[in-house]
Amino acid sequence: MSQAQFNESLVEFLSESTTPFHAVNAMENRLADAGFKALQEGDSWRVEAGGRYYVVRNGSSIIAWVMPKGAAEESGFRMVGAHTDSPCLKVKPSPEIHNNGYFQLGVEVYGGVLLNPWFDRDLSIAGRVSYRTQEGELADSLIDFKKAVAIIPSLAIHLDREANSERNINAQTYLPPILGQAEEKPDFRELLKTQLEKDGVGNVAQVFDYELCFYDTQKPGFVGLNDEFIASARLDNLLSCFIGLDSLLNSDMEQGALLVCNDHEEVGSMSAAGAQGPMLKQLLERIMPDAEVRNRALSRSVMISADNAHGVHPNFSDKHDGNHGPIINDGAVIKINANQRYATNSETSTLYRHLAEQEEVPVQAFVVRSDMACGSTIGPITAAEIGVRTLDIGVPQFGMHSIRELAGSQDAYNLSRVLRRFFDTERV
Question: Minimal CA–CA distance to 67: which of 286, 269, 316?
Fold first, then answer.
């Protein structure tokens, strides 16, 4: 696959994946098309050497894997991890607001959202809806309004003269999006029922609950005189989910391989479907029930935690250590932190550098300024949960946690090449 083909497939995936639920659904479809078998957690499993499988939890986390053809304790697994969630505005359970003739929805901030860019954007709504059918059964369906149905207008500069110098955003009062004008307060659940019917989901008697996000309807695209950049919502971290999936599907699948994409990373990962939950550990116990075999296999495994990195912003270069300012399109970034906010060590970083050298792609390193706090990833959590050697790496980007982020059009493709070689490597 060429870089252009890769990027077009990436843009298509980003457009589909408006929420973690939609991202997992998109990944399921691609895995099924590639011959992976869906397993249900509540069923009895019988996995075979060389078999290809995937399992989903909560509709928002997914693990896909290839069983080793030989003894798992001798070959181990080549693992890649990412997360499906992104900071956003979520609809509250009782969201209806009727104010001065306008219909609005109350929202809750999910994760560390960069709030200013959410104003004056064309917004839609997507997620999962839970309901009762006409027959009295409980069911869930994905929903996506797709068109722009809401906006959060800025207050005019004439009414807020300090907006450009001192703008503090009150998440409770400033952020409820406007969905239109109405003489009385509409019933939001009835609107959801109508939209489900438009989406072809019939037989809905009553909508009970939902997990819904607002999202920007502007499609992903290329930016720059030479299309150097990819601009999109949710690059952190659907970019890594796609890279991991593409690398797995284009590997030779001769080795034990595993891709895990967890939900809830942006809020700490502590959930049944998050990296700090038991999903991966339980799966490994099921596919390798003998503790001796499992522990030996993990000792021969490596996890690459892929999560985007902060590229050095030309207008704010002082926010980076002078020797560790990643440049967009200069290669993926090995993330290092002495206090274990990242799980990289010299052994795992050397492995990546070796693989990148074989693919003839550049590599960079990131260390946060010593006078600034460092973020974290699923890397240290996964390493602690299952005891696997781990590397933290990511594509450099601008605008992390904004409603529209920016990454390099070369970096994702180059990282996918290295991860594909990683999946194909006989010994790690």
Answer: 286
3-state secondary structure of 408: strand
Q: What per-residue confidence (pLDDT) applies to 368?
A: 87
3-class DSSP state of 416: helix
The residue assigned the tokens 């070689």 is 421
What is residue 166's predicted lDDT score, i.e. its pLDDT?
84
Distances (CA, A) of 289 to 275, 340, 419: 21, 30, 28
User: pTM (2 decimals)?
Assistant: 0.96
DSSP element (H, E) containing 123: strand 123-133
Q: Which of left, alpha, beta for 242 (phi over 0: left; psi -120 to 50: alpha)?
A: alpha
Find the angle CA(277)-CA(47)-CA(355) to the nearest 5 degrees.
Answer: 70
Q: How far apart are CA 103 and CA 179, in angstroms?
A: 6
- Mean of pLDDT values over 363-386: 91
Find residue 214's DSSP bridge partners.
Answer: 89, 125
Sheet holding 221-223, edge to edge: 221-223, 229-232, 405-408, 396-398, 309-310
Among candidate residues 204, 191, 195, the one with its CA nearest the CA of residue 103 = 191
Instruction: Please tell me the chain's helix, strand, coil percentages from 3-state DSSP, rounded to the nearest 5.
Output: 30, 30, 45
Q: How many C-beta atoms surround the C-beta of residue 292 within 10 A? A: 9
Q: pLDDT by residue (tens digit) across 205-224?
A: 999 999 999 999 999 999 99
8 Å CB contact between 83 and 266: yes
Backbone angles phi, psi at 31, to 5 degrees: -65, -45
Tokens standing for residue 367: 């260390």
The token pair that represents 337 in the structure block: 């932190």
The string of pLDDT tens digits covering residues 26-84 is 999 999 999 999 999 999 999 999 999 999 999 999 999 999 999 999 999 999 999 99
Structure tokens at 278: 């038991």
Among candidate residues 54, 81, 48, the one with its CA nearest the CA of residue 67: 48
Residue 200, classed as helix, strand or coil, is: coil
3-state class of 118 per DSSP?
helix
Confidence band of 374 (pLDDT split at 50, 70, 90): confident
Bridge partners (DSSP) of residue 182 are none
Where do the domains of the chain lie, and which CATH numbers do they carry? 3-86+233-424 (3.40.630.10), 88-216 (2.30.250.10)
